[in-house]
């Protein structure tokens, strides 16, 4: 039986989940303004293992949210995952952060656009169909009243980046899911297990998070 530790730190939510055979069995997470990831992440991991009578040696893999998102948050999560994988000689799995956001809702028609707040009127976005298949590449995007005019379907918006556009995206086709704010490690369990089964691993030594840094730092 595979046991995977899932780590999600791409946003203000510091989230860790344990999964057996793709099912979340326990999760600890907290979202704070001051990014407490550095002090909370390892505590959460140790508590989860202890509370479930597991040791680090019981883990078969570590999965980490790869971004896009906060530079600091991603760096902390990926660095921790690399350290654990290297020390225990187990594989590392990378999961797309925006897909984690998209999977928090179920829709019958239309598309899902997860948005992670970047700065000002900019967000990190991608577009997914109702089956969570990505149909437009991830990008840093400045949103205005002309955004998504070419799309006639219902557009379901999730993530902390959506709130600032409620007065901008006013067409009836936009559906704001305000209860879905941050990605969570709970949604990683199924995705990481699917990758584990086909040995879709990343190189522990050379893997880098998907910062979208070139967009964020441009003037």
TrEMBL record:
| Source organism superkingdom | Bacteria
Ranges for domain Gcp-like come to: 36-175
What Gene3D superfamilies does UniProt report for this protein, alphabetically? 3.30.420.40
Which InterPro entries does this entry report, sorted A to Z?
ATPase_NBD, Gcp-like_dom, T6A_TsaB
**UniProt cross-references to Pfam families, sorted A to Z:** TsaD (PF00814)
Matching NCBIfam families, A to Z? Answer: T6A_YeaZ (TIGR03725)
The name this protein goes by in its record: tRNA (Adenosine(37)-N6)-threonylcarbamoyltransferase complex dimerization subunit type 1 TsaB
| Source organism (scientific name) | Flavobacterium proteolyticum
This chain is encoded by the gene named tsaB
């Amino acid at each position: 039986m595979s046991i995977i530790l899932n780590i999600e730190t791409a946003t203000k939510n510091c989230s860790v989940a344990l999964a057996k055979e793709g099912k979340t069995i326990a999760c600890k997470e907290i979202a704070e303004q001051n990014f407490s990831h550095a002090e909370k992440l390892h505590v959460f991991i140790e508590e989860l293992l202890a509370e479930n009578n597991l040791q680090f040696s019981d883990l078969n893999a570590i999965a980490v949210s790869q971004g896009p998102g906060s530079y600091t948050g991603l760096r902390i999560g990926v660095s921790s995952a690399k350290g654990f994988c290297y020390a225990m000689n187990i594989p590392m799995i990378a999961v797309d952060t925006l897909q984690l956001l998209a999977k928090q809702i179920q829709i019958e028609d239309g598309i899902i656009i997860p948005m992670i707040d970047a700065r000002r009127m900019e967000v990190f976005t991608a577009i997914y169909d109702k089956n969570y298949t990505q149909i437009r590449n991830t990008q840093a995007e400045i949103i205005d009243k002309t955004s998504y005019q070419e799309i006639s379907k219902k557009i379901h918006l999730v993530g902390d980046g959506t709130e600032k556009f409620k007065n901008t995206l006013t067409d009836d086709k936009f559906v704001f899911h305000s209860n879905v704010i941050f990605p969570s490690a709970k949604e990683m369990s199924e995705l990481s297990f699917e990758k584990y089964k086909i040995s879709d691993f990343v190189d522990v030594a050379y893997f880098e998070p998907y910062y979208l840094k070139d967009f964020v730092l441009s003037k």
